[in-house]
Structure formats: structure tokens, C-alpha cells
Amino acid sequence: MDVLSHYSSPVIEFPASQPLEKQHTLVDNCTGTDPPAASSDASTETQRRNNVASQTEQTRLATGGSGGTCDERALAKWLRHICPMVEQELMHPTPMMDEQTTSQGRLEKEVNVHTYQKLSMGSSADNSLGVGLAIWLCVQTNNAPVLVATTVAPHDDWCEHVDQQLKLFVPQRMSHGNYVIFNEAKTLALKSCLRSLCTNPFNKNIFAGSTMDGEIFVWLYEQLRSGIGVHTVDPNVEITQLHSVASPQGAAVALDWVSEKHLVASYANGALHQWVMGKVMTLDWEYTLPPTINSEVTAMVVLGLEDFVLGTNDGGVYRCWSNGRQNAMNPKHLQLMALRRHRFMVSTLLKTEIDGHQFVLSCDLSGQAFYHDMQHVDEDAAQLSIQIPLPFKSVIACSQDGNIIYCPSNDGSLDYYRISDGAHAQVKGALRGRGNYIRSSDNGCWLITGLYGDEFQIFYVEQ
Ligand SMILES: [Zn+2]
């Protein structure tokens, strides 16, 4: 019965080129050397493969000619089937346990990250369900940039938090040792919670914020005189509001700068606005995602002039760019290309450069991160190049060379991963709560994570 079932298996799709009796003998031989499996599971398949091998070999020996072409076709078919699996295994080998542990020890030694300072936001309200926003501005002293931070209360719908605050923390050199300490230097009253914050990379004294009630502010940080000593509120620094504009689109979910004077605001409904900072702030152009994409925009980065990447709440990642010298046209027409999509909401989009190539790093709520190569504007070439799972991590920051990914973890700790060898390391924290925000300074030396109750955690990365 077993023999018969083997004989009539799909293997026999190759035309027989020898007498039937001989084939019977062949099958019998196989069965003879290989005792039949007790149960018909995986081992049955192995045996079936044996049959293929014996048959092809036998055919080649017996006839050649037309039989030969058949064999080659069968071989090619088999290779086509097996090659992707072999390739897959070679590209993502299963790491050995001890290999992982040694690379972890090495990563901790090579990239030394340690907790540096906790920042209390000093708010009386319960922020245990709230989130934090913080950005790094210009470098002040000892490679340490000025920091702007705020808390955002949990929202059901409309923001009714009319006494929100934006706090400025200025690093000051300690009188002893080569240390700096971040001191609260200024507090700015806000009439509504902020939705997003963004430093102007072309002039890091300037930053923009969008509020829940639909306003966009542009602020300037100024150091009036070089302050000496430690103050709780520094009289020598100032935050000046340069512009404010109200948008009927609601709260901008993301802001980014195209130049020192051009700010792009991205809205959940797929609208993109470019503003010009002149004497006043004016709308330069607007663009709306085509109706075929009926998901909410959750993240955006500017790559260049009329060149953006957007992330959506259903995991979509899209590049939008203008390919021609079109004149001021409202609404704008942009090319749109779908990049490798996530399964969950895109929480983070970051620009980075690897070996001189521009990449956009995207991360979703499940902790799956993709590196998208941006050097191509053609659909096949621009797809995913690296995919890494970061279990239970929803937001990320990355090192200057794109090789290290940092994620805030529970209770103020920080996890980091090296892409080149898969090494993982952790810095223990001493706060309570679940981190949902992280931002790296441009020089890669500082990280801020939050919000843990009412506190942010600053980390220092030894270079
Ligand atoms: Zn609010």
C-alpha cells in the first residue's frame, strides 16, 4: 500500500523513459534500503525526494537525450523552489545564544549610554496618562544643547487645558568638574496643549510648535548675556514669539523645516501646508493626499524642497515629491509613491544617512522598524532595505550614522540596538511609568525620554 502510494505521488509527473518493471524495481529498492516511516509525516516527504533523485539519476544513465532536458527542467524547478529559502537563511542566520550575549557586552562597552539627569515639569496636575514633548535646540556648552519641553494631558476631544506651559532648560557648566546641569531657565504660558514641536535645523535657535486648537507658533530662543552661576529662572535668556497663525485644518500632527524660512505643517486629514516666514507668516502652497488614501496622517519628515515622507494610522508610508519646475500652483500637484507599509500606525519617521545614502527610518506601534532607501524615485528600487523587530517598542530615535536605534522602555530605562550585528543593550532607569517619547540631539550625545509621571529622563551617550 505504501509502495503504491509512493508510486502514484506527484513525483511521477516526469515522463517515464524506461520500462515500467524497471521503475518498480527502483521504487522497491528505495523502500528496501529505507524502512517505511511508522507515521506518514515529514519523513514521508524526505522519502519522496529520495524517489526524485533516484529516478532522475536513473533516467540520465539510461537514456540521456530527451530525458536529459526533462531532468534539467526538474532540477531548475527544484532549485527555483529551494534557492529563496537558502538565500533567506544565509541573509538572516539564526544567531547562536552565546554570540548574542557577547555582542551585547560589546555594545555596552562600545556605545556607553548612561542616565544623566531627571527633569521635573513641576506641574500639579496628574500626568500619569499624559505624554511629553521635548526638543533640542542649539548647543550651549560642553556639547550640550538647550532643551524645550512640555507635557500634554490626555485628550478625549477638545483641549480645555488653558494653563499649559513650555519650559526651557539651559545647560550650565558646574563650577567643579567637566559637567553640565540642565536648569529651568524660562517658562512660557500656553493657552492650549501642544500637538507637535520641531527645531529649525537651519537655525537651531528657532523652533515651531502646533497646538491642539489649531495654531502654529514660531519662537526664537535668545541668550542675552552669558549668564554665570546657577539660577532657577535665568534672566539672561529669552523666548520671543516670532509668528503665530491659526489654521482651519485643526492641530498639525507634524512640523518640519524645508529651509530657515520655510515650515511645513502636516494634518491628519492628509493636508500639507508650506508657510514662508517673512515679515509675517504666509501660506506658500498647500497639497492634499489623493482620496484613494483615506487614512489619517500621523507622521511626516521633509527630505528637501517639495519632497516629503508621510506615515499614516494604518501603517502606510508615502513619499510625495514634485518632479518638475512647476510654478506656484495651489493646490500643489505632487508625485506619490507608496513605500513598504507597516501593519500598525506609523509612530516615528526619522531621516538618517548610511554610507552617504539618505534613508528614512519608520517605526510602527508594534515596534517594527524599516529603513527606506531614498536615493531612488522608482518604485522597485526605493523599497525596504532593512527590517528590524523591536518588540513592545513604539517610538524610536537613532544615532547619527543610523546604526543604533534607541527606544524608551518601562520605568525610565532605555533599550538600544545595533543594526549591523543585532546587538542589544539596556540602561536601567529609576522612574515609574511607560516611556512614550524619545528625541536625540543632533550631535548624538544626548537623549531625552518621557514622560514618566511628571518627569523626563536625560541620557548621555559617550562618543
Ligand atoms: Zn489639552
Task: Describe the overall structure.
The longest helix is centred in the first third of the chain and has 26 residues, at 66-91. This protein has helices at 2-7, 20-33, 42-62, 66-91, 97-110, and strands spanning 113-120, 131-141, 144-152, 164-173, 180-190, 194-199, 206-211, 215-223, 237-246, 252-257, 262-267, 271-277, 281-288, 297-304, 307-312, 317-321, 335-339, 346-354, 357-364, 368-373, 384-389, 397-398, 404-408, 414-418, 424-427, 437-440, 446-452, 455-461. The protein starts with a helix and ends with a strand. It has 463 residues and is an alpha+beta fold. The model is unreliable at 1-34 and 36-69 (pLDDT under 50). The site of zinc ion (ZN) has 6 residues, from loops. The site of zinc ion has 6 residues, from loops. Keywords: Cytoplasm, Repeat, WD repeat. Residues 28-68 are annotated as: Disordered. One of its GO terms (biological process) is intraciliary transport.
Question: What would a concise description of this structure say?
Answer:
This protein has helices spanning 2-7, 20-33, 42-62, 66-91, 97-110, and strands at residues 113-120, 131-141, 144-152, 164-173, 180-190, 194-199, 206-211, 215-223, 237-246, 252-257, 262-267, 271-277, 281-288, 297-304, 307-312, 317-321, 335-339, 346-354, 357-364, 368-373, 384-389, 397-398, 404-408, 414-418, 424-427, 437-440, 446-452, 455-461. It has 463 residues and is an alpha+beta fold.
